[in-house]
User: Fold this.
Amino acid sequence: MDEVSFSAKLPKYTLSELQQLRLNCLAYERGDLASLVEMELRQRPKPRKPRVRSKAKSPVRVTFDGDVREWEHARDAYVWLLEKFIAAAPHVFDVDPHRASELAPGTRRNHFAERETELFYSSPHLALSSSNFARLSNGWVADVDVSNDRKLEILLRLSLICGLSYRSRWRFDETLRPQQDFPDFF
Assistant:
């Protein structure tokens, strides 16, 4: 599908449909279309939801090149997958630290940075608690204080950059929720 006709369809989708569409584009390795969806999402007002913090376990099953692991906490699984991505494609983090936000853009924080204080530019107090970030083997730090859905989005985006195909090379499955299906929107 060409970008012009794809862009023309975006305004009729709801916010949740656009968010799912962005995941679909990343899962099907269509970063060009995912960028168009992200632009549409940025133009829309974001609904404010009360933030509920939970320290409950969120078990997940992850796979990388046939190595299947189950984790009690999605944070640990996320960091493990990030380390596998780094080992498979170490060049991905060879970017200017000021352009690190391009790896996985966030609205109020960077998801990767060389220092903790650079992660949380709009809420620097978050850098004081090590539960909000993890230091990676390449020296960078990763924001781990994100929802599981956002972790999957970041992993999908990073895997696209790394050239690691979702489902054939790696997976991130929440074990207590039904398997998320990626319907074909285009």
Summary: The beta strands are 60-64, 67-71, 112-113, 133-135, 141-143, 170-174. The chain has a mean pLDDT of 82. The longest helix spans residues 74-88. The chain has six helices and six strands.
